[in-house]
Amino acid sequence: MIKLRERRSLDQHPCFHGKASASWGRVHLPVAPDCNIQCNYCNRLYACVNESRPGVTRSVLKPAEALTALNRLLQQRADIAVVGIAGPGDPLCDLDRTLETLRAVHAIHPELLICVSTNGLNLPGHIDELVAAGVTHVTVTVNAVDPHIGQQIYSSVTEKHQTYQGLEAANILLGRQEEAVAGLKQRGLMVKINTVVLPGINTGHIPAIAAKVAAWGADTMNCIPLIPVHDTPFAELETPTEAEMVYIRKSISGHIPQIYHCRRCRADAVGLLCDNDTVGVLAL
Ligand code: SF4
Ligand code: SF4
């Protein structure tokens, strides 16, 4: 009789659960090059081996290539609990490409947890497809819950071939993010909120974000200090200090549980969170 492989338990996701991070790793499949919004801190033009930050990858893979690379990786190590898609763009911008990848992964490796990280714009209306493709964990990046602040962070939001800017863009995105988080929780998925801490832009607004996303039903929140990237409107902002991050996380931990061990990984990161990402990039 064929023995079905048991799925990892939800608390084996190393990013959502600090205790799991010492034993269990993740792999990001970099199959999502495009994005449907433009954040003022993001520049994805760098294909790079040495830099370790979100949006960077050695290369963008086709779904079949990603599966080949994953199969090879899983032959080499048994500590991978999660397959995620975290860019280098937004995984739901080209939904077909992401679903093709996830369905193939879930069919061949049903034991693995599956995770997607998104800005949330294109999530409402597609949650059932993601669940059917095996998705268990979703991260939604929410940098503002006041569109007057959001309009300083997002220079554009594009959907159905129409591009929006300013307050209108920030309002559209915020509405989708709320709908997305509520819909994910209705279907029982684990939801993490990523918030990029942008000094002078949203620092004083972080408690309001924490209270709001908790009310939406999110499980946990990950405040990420800005990594200023050249050739972006926020290139000249300072990165928050460690002391500021400690203070921010402490001041909002009463609203929603905080994540303290995020490594701000590349879109092709591999392994335990304590591994060196610049070495552990997914290889074809
Ligand atoms: Fe970059 Fe992500 Fe913002 Fe898109 S949503 S612009 S990929 S940071
Ligand atoms: Fe996990 Fe943070 Fe890395 Fe995402 S960026 S995989 S949440 S450690």
Structure, described:
The protein is an alpha/beta fold and 284 residues long. It has a single domain, classed as Alpha-Beta Barrel (TIM Barrel). Helices cover 30% and strands 18% of the residues. The chain has helices spanning 63-76, 95-108, 127-132, 147-153, 166-186, 206-216, 242-252, and strands spanning 25-28, 37-39, 80-85, 113-118, 135-141, 154-159, 162-164, 190-197, 220-225, 270-271. The strands form 2 sheets. A 7-stranded mixed sheet has the order 9-8-5-4-3-1-10. Strands 2-6-7 form a 3-stranded antiparallel sheet. The two termini are 34 Å apart. The mean pLDDT is 90. One iron/sulfur cluster binds next to loops.
- What's the total count of β strands? 10
Total domains: 1
Distance between the termini: 34 Å
Number of DSSP helical runs? 7
Major beta-sheet overview: 7 strands, mixed
CA-atom Rg in angstroms: 18 Å
Shape: globular
Q: Residue share in helices?
A: 25-40%
* Assembly category: single chain
The ordered H/E elements are EEHEHEHEHEEHEHEHE
**Main sheet: strand order:** 9-8-5-4-3-1-10
The name of the CATH architecture is Alpha-Beta Barrel
Give the structural class. alpha/beta
Tell me the name of the CATH class. Answer: Alpha Beta
Q: Which segments are poorly predicted (pLDDT under 50) over 5 or more consecutive residues?
A: none
CATH H-level superfamily:
Aldolase class I
Beta-strand share of residues: 15-25%
Instruction: Kindly report the average pLDDT value.
Output: 90
Might you state the CATH topology name? Answer: TIM Barrel
The bound ligands are: iron/sulfur cluster
Pathway: Cofactor biosynthesis; Fe-Mo cofactor biosynthesis
GO biological process, one term: molybdopterin cofactor biosynthetic process
InterPro entries: Aldolase_TIM, Elp3/MiaA/NifB-like_rSAM, MoaA_NifB_PqqE_Fe-S-bd_CS, rSAM, rSAM_sf
Family: Belongs to the radical SAM superfamily. NifB family.
